[in-house]
Design a protein that fits this description.
Largest sheet: 8 strands, mixed
Structural class: alpha+beta
GO molecular function: cyclic-di-GMP binding
Protein name: PilZ domain-containing protein
Strand order of the largest sheet: 27-3-26-25-31-30-28-29
Pfam family, one: PilZ
Domain PilZ: 143-225, 477-590
Organism: Shewanella atlantica
Number of strands: 31
Radius of gyration: 30 Å
Shape: globular
Distance between the termini: 41 Å
């Protein structure tokens, strides 16, 4: 196994290396890998996270001025780019100088010098790497319900029958810790250790602190002097957990809170919101009933609705279930590696005012020796369609929510969670129909002497009801909590402006108010709310000066909608209203629209879809001079398209798209068409043929050409045969379209959380999302394209034997 094939997985695991529950996350994320692969991954991660003693000195290696950077009595001399790389890498490894930090700084410096040298010979423009795209992981985010902070205090550790050993904490959370001990600690790593938090026991009196708290040793790393242990708390009372939680909340301003997980999730979700409105495929969700698979839900985007319209008959009933019968789904899902079960061919026939559907899979046509007849006859129909059905099994061990910030519930409502648990697979119905290829399919006519009447066996049985539930992707604020009718007085202050109103309805994180008099509030500044009538119920919790932000105003500024502003500390209003709703839910009238749970379910289905995209989304970013294809949306699972472009890139999570974009194609086939489009136009596409061959020393060469540049049908067939002889042939469909403005409402709470701890990172992410002007995807259509050339399939059907 090559570790390069798992670069995305390694990059995602890096930020988690210093976590107490790293081993659990590692086991979860590598569940589908072999034992040997997991061993190699673990060895690599242990290697890059081991402490490093090597000094980095670039004073005689850089053309830029260098400055001294000191860390733990080590003095490095770094230029500006190297210092930035050093600081970013140190944050990744929890401020520990590891071999991974050293290698990242040296490699970044090396690549910068190489690009600089190549740039001296290339005066076309100032863009040194116009064809290199970075990867952003979509759909797979690590969620944590508790915060962690870098917090160093003196500790004492012990095991039964062994000498007590002093040490320090490196970071601390409610459920775990990372500690540093002398290398000669002599502890049994397979047994729990007891940790006394000495400085806390001096300041707080808890029996747990005096006796010590039991921790499980999750992982260890060593240097010549120290041993770092990653621990998971297995002892202690709820009082101790509360104390630790309060400690972390109280020290947020003095110690660094780790926001990496939230930032990664917000970045991925931000790019998702650019892509999903343009999703051209129809996601379908499968349940198993007494061993029979059936599609029960489908998910609509703005651009995939034409796909589901095709299956509506004269009575507006979808005949999609007729094509995706239980027998076909069973064949597809029980033989997931047999691609013949995933290619569908379909046409319609109208008679006596009724619309009849005919469909067959490639596997069925081959087994019945009717491939040439069906393709040649069906392709003469205006209704001719070719579909690919991508499929993935759902991993129910993962949380269904895509993003959980500390303090959030880890799941959806019980009803939504129960429904999500029933799904077994996610399908994507992908339309591969190309009008220009219909004449190619008609060439199959010379391969068959069968009669058209023999196609009657592929006539679909009429479906008389619509059994598949339709849900729509939500492109507004996604966390639509249940709202309840509730009236209470609210006093509002914003600067010198004061007002009084009454709630119309409430949720834990938001309110709808009716004011006594219309007032124009400043949308950019928070509103401070007080709840005088509820204060007697709140006890010690102070329900005044609570920060909310104005979402929208209705009815001449009399009715306003507010959302809580989440900051460093828990929002007292959110906590109180949440308790109020929970304890009085049966008494309160629910006023949320009937489809509130549907919105939540749609969000969960979207998350299941994004974890296994069959295509590779890309994003066009506006630059100072023009625009570039800067980003690919990638997953943690192997994808042949990503592997192809990663093979010729020099760094992890980078993809060399030169073969696709060179010779002016970036401008001609991407930038110019996208600039002429509007977001509401949807996506258009073009196709390219790829010749992938291996060169000496294992290098990969990719030749990429549009089929019209290759020539006529004979030239294209020669190109395909030549490609397969040299290596392999691939065909890609490239979708492209204009992107709308970023849906920042969808990641508002993530942005607020990041902004509270690292405002510059929040601002940088927003700026990045606003720069995206184009979106599209790369889709592998190799199997379908090869079917357009009957001569590539060899002997005609009339010479083939029908299997018994």
């Amino acid at each position: 196994m090559s570790l390069d094939e798992h670069s995305a997985l390694i990059e995602q695991l890096k930020p988690l290396l210093m976590e107490p529950d790293f081993q659990e996350l590692f086991q979860q994320l590598t569940a589908d890998e072999s034992n040997s692969t997991r061993f190699l991954l673990k060895m690599e991660l242990n290697r890059i996270s081991s402490p490093c003693s090597r000094i980095i000195d670039l004073r005689d290696k850089s053309e830029l001025p260098c400055e001294e950077v000191t860390h733990n009595n080590q003095h490095h001399y770094l230029d500006g780019p190297a210092k930035e790389s050093f600081m970013q890498s140190m944050a990744l490894y929890r401020d520990q100088y590891t071999l991974g930090v050293y290698e990242q700084v040296i490699e970044t410096h090396k690549q910068r010098k190489l690009k600089l040298r190549s740039g001296e010979n290339n005066q076309n423009n100032g863009q040194l790497t116009p064809f290199i795209a970075k990867g952003v992981v979509l759909g797979n985010y690590f969620n944590r319900s508790e915060e962690r902070m870098n917090y160093s205090i003196r500790i004492s550790t012990l095991q039964s029958g062994r000498v007590e050993v002093p040490g320090i904490t490196v970071d601390l959370s409610v459920g775990g810790a990372r500690i540093r001990l002398p290398l000669t600690h002599n502890f049994d790593l397979d047994k729990p250790i007891r940790v006394k938090l000495l400085e806390l026991s001096e300041e707080y009196y808890y029996e747990d602190l005096q006796k010590g708290v039991d921790y499980e040793i999750v992982d260890t790393q060593t240097s010549s002097e120290y041993c770092w242990m990653r621990l998971k708390r297995i002892g202690g009372t709820e009082e101790l957990a509360t104390m630790l939680s309060n400690l972390i909340k109280g020290y947020k301003y003095r110690y660094k809170v780790d926001i990496n997980d939230v930032l990664v999730a917000a970045t991925g979700l931000g790019f998702e919101r650019h892509y999903l409105p343009h999703l051209p495929h129809l996601p379908l969700f499968v349940e198993s009933d007494d061993g029979q698979y059936k599609v029960t839900h489908k998910l609509l985007s703005r651009d995939n609705q034409q796909l589901q319209f095709f299956f509506r008959d004269e009575q507006d009933i979808s005949q999609l279930p007729g094509m995706l019968s239980s027998q076909r789904l069973d064949a597809l899902l029980r033989e997931p590696d047999n691609k013949d079960h995933s290619l569908f061919f379909c046409f319609t026939f109208q008679a006596q005012g009724r619309l009849f559907f005919y469909s067959a899979t490639l596997a069925e046509l081959k087994s019945k020796n009717l491939l040439a007849l069906f393709l040649s006859f069906g392709a003469t129909k205006a209704s001719w369609k070719v579909f690919k059905l991508a499929h993935h099994e759902i991993d129910h061990s993962q949380c269904y929510k895509a993003s959980i910030i500390p303090g959030d519930d880890s799941g959806y409502s019980a009803l939504t969670e129960a429904q999500l648990k029933r799904f077994t697979h996610v399908l994507q119905l992908i339309n591969l129909t190309a009008e220009h290829a219909q004449v190619d399919y008609q060439a199959w006519d010379c391969k068959s002497d069968r009669k058209v009447n023999e196609l009657k066996i592929f006539g679909q049985q009429k479906v008389t009801t619509n059994p598949i539930k339709l849900l729509s992707l939500q492109f507004s604020e996604r966390r639509n909590e249940a709202r309840f009718a509730f009236k209470t007085q609210v006093n509002i202050n914003q600067g010198k402006v004061t007002a009084t109103g009454f709630t119309h309805d409430i949720s834990s994180k938001g309110l709808q108010l009716t004011l006594e008099h219309p007032i124009q509030f400043d949308k950019t500044a928070p509103l401070l709310l007080s709840f005088p009538k509820l204060q007697p119920l709140a006890g010690k919790t102070k329900l005044n000066h609570l920060a909310y932000r104005l979402i929208r105003t209705r009815k001449n500024s009399v009715t306003i909608h507010l959302a809580a502003v989440m900051g460093h500390t828990p929002h007292a209003g959110v906590e109180f209203l949440n308790k109020l709703i929970i304890h009085n839910e049966e008494k309160l009238e629910k006023v949320t629209e009937a489809h509130s749970e549907t919105k939540e379910l749609a969000d969960g289905l979207k998350n299941l879809l994004m974890r296994h995209l069959d295509s590779v989304p890309f994003f066009i970013e506006k630059t100072a001079k023009s625009a570039q294809l800067t980003t690919l949306g990638i997953g943690t699972h192997k994808n042949v398209i990503m592997d192809l472009f990663a093979a010729t890139a020099s760094e992890h999570l980078e993809y060399n798209l030169e073969s696709l974009l060179k010779d002016g194609r970036l401008k001609k086939q991407f930038i110019d068409p996208i600039r002429a489009m509007k977001p509401q136009h949807g996506l258009e596409y073009f196709e390219v043929y790829l010749q992938v061959s291996r060169q000496s020393q294992g290098q990969v060469r990719v030749k990429c050409l549009p089929p019209e540049e290759i020539g006529d049908i004979t030239a294209r067939q020669h190109f395909i045969n030549q490609s397969n002889n040299l290596g392999r042939f691939m065909a890609l469909r490239v979708y492209r379209g204009a992107s709308g403005k970023p849906d920042l409402n969808y990641i508002r709470r993530e942005l607020e959380y990041i902004n509270a701890h690292a405002p510059h990172k929040s601002k940088k992410l927003e700026e990045l999302l606003w720069k995206i002007i184009g979106v599209g995807e790369l889709l592998d259509i190799t199997e379908e394209v090869q079917l357009r050339y009957p001569e590539l399939y060899g002997a005609p059907e009339k010479q083939l034997k029908v299997s018994a």
